[in-house]
Amino acid sequence: MRNPHYSRRPTMRDIADELGVTQATVSLVFRNKPGTSDEMRRKVLETADRLGYVRDESARALRSQRPTAIGVTFRTHQPFHDELLDGLYRAVSPGPHKLVLSAVSDSRQEKDAIEELISHRCGAAVILGPRITDEQLSVYSGRIPLIIVARRSDRPEIDWVTSDDQQGMDAVVDHLVSLGHRDIAYLSSSIDASGSARIDAFIQACEGRGVGEHVQVHTAGITENDGARGVEQMLAGNRRATAVVAFNDRCALGAMEALHRRGVRIPQDISLVGFDDSTIASRPTIDITSVHQDTGELARIAIERAAARMMGEEPAAGDHGQIVATRLVVRSSSGSALSS
Amino acid sequence: MRNPHYSRRPTMRDIADELGVTQATVSLVFRNKPGTSDEMRRKVLETADRLGYVRDESARALRSQRPTAIGVTFRTHQPFHDELLDGLYRAVSPGPHKLVLSAVSDSRQEKDAIEELISHRCGAAVILGPRITDEQLSVYSGRIPLIIVARRSDRPEIDWVTSDDQQGMDAVVDHLVSLGHRDIAYLSSSIDASGSARIDAFIQACEGRGVGEHVQVHTAGITENDGARGVEQMLAGNRRATAVVAFNDRCALGAMEALHRRGVRIPQDISLVGFDDSTIASRPTIDITSVHQDTGELARIAIERAAARMMGEEPAAGDHGQIVATRLVVRSSSGSALSS
């Protein structure tokens, strides 16, 4: 049975009839082509609005063979991805591109989210914080241009944009060393490549500042429970640490809670630093020092690259990735190291 | 220029050629029709997988005039919407329907989010927590079946599913009264109809329990800053309250922070209750008593109604809405009232 709602969808013909002009005139306005007066342009858009005309993007994309939709996969329950989504919408508006979102969720894998974007004929896919491997991604890159955000890729066919983890970790360690910290623990995430990039950056930052010898790494993860587990593991060991740096803010929050439970005071007994500068880190009751990522800029570059790839442009060799500057936001969770 | 990636998209013909069968056979398998052996079915699906064949949903929807996509609008930075999204994906999988998401964000209005779903030929639109009026919604309901979640509608053409606010508020007030509270303040949100439904439920709950006379209402909103402002307004007044109920958990968190800043202890000096039982309310460092909404059930009903409307079914008169039970989750933010 045909959906009865569809029979009432107004068409370009309805607009043309209403104004007593040809469909071609209406079409020129919608395609932003010359050949109509400003006055006619205004009338057409007004009438379209009044009749409730909505352009049929999927039919248009099929006819023109030039897709306008940029697909986006994001993860639910990730404030950092919410901020990237805000940035992506800002980056496409106003402009010819539309976003089609496909979520990765507890019941839905990244693979399914990407395949759905392909099946909906998106012209490119922006993948926020991918966890599947480069090898798995490259299977898709043959079918749709891929732009990954918050991770690098060695594959020349995959575009990427990510924050400057090294600069961020350098700033974190500079800050802690200036407060007298020498024994710094790291709560790592090994769930994906961004985890390994960040731990490398952290270790390099410590080595560059003469505190590399005392570094200890504890396996944690990306959630609050992971962070709590990581810090319990640290407290159970017999190596002292006066500061803890966590892979992200959720992990840092879990660490904060576990430290509170054990009666360890922040920052008097131990300093704590997160990553992402998410909404939660900035709440006055939480107030965790963290590395801010420029989500607006990350999003802008992702859309720019998606649009270029959709036009068939290929970046110059070795030029398929971009790194965006970060900055440290100091809050009350980091303070002077105890003199021992 | 045609996107070079598209020329490599495998087709049904490629699968048929690979197996030495006709395209009709392949098509039967994909359409779930009888006429092929289980063995052939298995081979076709395996080959499709290996070649990386993805069904072109938008082309199929156009050909069949029967859309399979259910559009969803949600709001970024709303943990409650994240949970509904998890539920919606669970509700459509496995099944013939796909979700197309369109976000409402700081740079993007609800109106734009809904129009995009229409332009992408979705068969129905599920609107999470709409803020636009019923009158504005009804403009769209002529073009696409609408199912709204977390709000009611009087319009018979709009389906809705929402939590039982009255049951939730009854449980909150029962809980507070049993702890000895008589003077209860409410931090309201007037941003949308769910705000007014919830405040009505709160006042009715208080009146039904003999504490209606002492109720005080302070205008707050849906964010942490709104909650902080509402509680400051309450503290500036000269009417005492021993318990505060907030429109949602974000508002309650802001209230908690403002109370902490003023040195007011929770729950010794004042009890605090939120709504939504979101991830943040359940963090051990926050730990706010809150009303749990069954997001899985809300999502399941929304998809069921969307699917029915897409088949052209209309609910019986007066049967276009459903109410889902809630339950109170008691945490450490609520305790005994001080004896005065």
TrEMBL record, chains A, B:
In Swiss-Prot or TrEMBL terms, this protein is called: Catabolite control protein A
Please state the gene responsible for encoding this protein.
ccpA_5
What Pfam families does this protein map onto?
LacI, Peripla_BP_3
Does the record carry tRNA processing as a key word?
A: no
Quote the InterPro entries the UniProt record gives.
Answer: HTH_LacI, LacI/GalR-like_sensor, Lambda_DNA-bd_dom_sf, Peripla_BP_I
SMART domains named in the record? HTH_LACI
Highest taxon in the source lineage? Bacteria
Q: Matching PROSITE patterns, A to Z? A: HTH_LACI_2
A single Gene Ontology MF term assigned here is:
DNA-binding transcription factor activity
Please name the SUPFAM superfamilies in this protein's record. lambda repressor-like DNA-binding domains (SSF47413), Periplasmic binding protein-like I (SSF53822)
| Record's keyword terms, sorted | DNA-binding, Transcription, Transcription regulation
Q: Which chain positions lie within coiled-coil regions?
A: none
Question: Is DNA-binding among this UniProt entry's keywords?
Answer: yes
Annotated ranges, domain HTH lacI-type: 10-64
